[in-house]
Amino acid sequence: MIGFLLVGLLAAIYLIINLVLPHIGLNPQIATYLIQPLLWGTVIAAVKFMPGYRPLGKSSKKSVFIQFALGMAAIQIFLYIIGGLFSGFGKSPSSFTALGISENIFYVGMMLIGMELSRAWLVTQFGKKNTFLTILFATLLFTLISIPLGQLTGFQLRITSSNQVISSWLPLLAENLAASLLVLMAGAEASLAFRGLLAAFWWLCPILPNLDWAMKGLIGTIIPVIGIVAINNYYAQYAAQGKSRKKTRNASIPAGWIITTIIGIAIVWFAVGVFPVKPFLVPSGSMVPVIDPGDVVLIAPVKTAAIKVGEIIEYRNVKENINIVHRVIAITGDAPNIFFITKGDANNAPDPDPVSTQAILGREIFVIPKIGWVSVAVKKLLSG
């Protein structure tokens, strides 16, 4: 019951920050650097009154896990700097006045402490019985609440969004996976050491590397993954030496973390269309009843010569700057000037413009019902 209340508190703070504060007319500086830290302060206070927790790792090994955490962050920062030697450096957007530095420390510090204390409580309370599921849940939860709601609701599942996902979301997922493992082993101090050092680099360093999206994503993902494997190998070695049969069994969990990482990375790469088959989230009811709003259509590449009347295709509408999934009702013209006449099944008339072969993105191969309905509902709520 307490765990549900804590998750509910985190969700409430996320919604207040993303939906309430931007619309009540507060000064943005006050909303960001005063109200948000105070909201995270409520999480810190709430966790302090909850029953205590004990990390999985021995207390005598706590300092070792903290060293692991600091080492991961230091290597990641070092590689960012090395990358900057090739791509160049630029001035940080953060303020470096005495007031600006104080505001940033207060803002980031309260957020990280609130997140890691609540993560530590959730993971260590439930992770000893259901380790894999708890780590997976904590990783996804704290990844989601770290992404602004506008980015989530405005995100479209197509390859043009891959820069944002690979450079920002995927490293954030890996960072939260590593942090969830660290709190299980050594409590919030270890995850704070890892995330705090990374945050200090990005917020308090006046000169930052101008990394391209691919380099930033690679470094931000691979170092936490390597760290996860190293931490589990270390834990497995000393746990196997103990007399506790329970801990010996827990020493076999590294494969679980690796599987979690691979699944998480694969889902994100699939979502941005890196694989040949890519998803398309249907936002409207133009294809009802075959495809409902919130359904996800799997789109596969197709040669335009193989497209037949009656098939459902995805194409790019350049005028409206959107992708559309509609049915082909006629094919006109001769090669190479072939055009496809499309129409939504629920629409009264065909689409106004014929679709050229260059605009075709793929053909529908499967529909997954309803898995995107939350995103569609939130978009409608935000649009009034």
Chain-wise SSE layout:
Elements: H1 2-20, H2 28-48, H3 62-87, E1 89-91, H4 98-126, H5 131-144, H6 149-154, H7 162-186, H8 188-204, E2 207-209, H9 213-241, H10 245-250, H11 254-271, E3 278-281, E4 296-300, E5 312-317, E6 322-334, E7 337-343, E8 355-356, E9 360-368, H12 373-382
Antiparallel strand pairs: 1-2, 3-4, 4-9, 5-6, 5-9, 6-7, 7-8
Helix pairs in contact: 1-2, 2-4, 3-8, 3-9, 4-5, 4-7, 4-8, 5-7, 7-8, 7-9, 7-11, 9-11
Write down the secondary-structure element order.
HHHEHHHHHEHHHEEEEEEEH
The mean pLDDT is 83
Q: In angstroms, what separates the terminal alpha carbons?
A: 34 Å
Instruction: Give the biggest beta sheet.
Output: 7 strands, antiparallel
Categorize the overall geometry. elongated
Strand content: 5-15%
Number of domains: 2
- Beta-strand segment tally: 9
Radius of gyration: 24 Å
What spatial order of strands do you see in the largest sheet? Answer: 3-4-9-5-6-7-8
Give a written overview of the molecule.
Helix content is 57%, strand content 14%. It has 384 residues and is an alpha+beta fold. It has 2 domains: 2-271, no CATH class; 278-382, Umud Fragment, subunit A (Ribbon). It has a 7-stranded antiparallel sheet, with no helix packed on it. Strand 5 (312-317) and strand 6 (322-334) form a beta hairpin. It is elongated, with a radius of gyration of 24 Å. The two termini are 34 Å apart. Mean pLDDT is 83; it is low at 243-254.
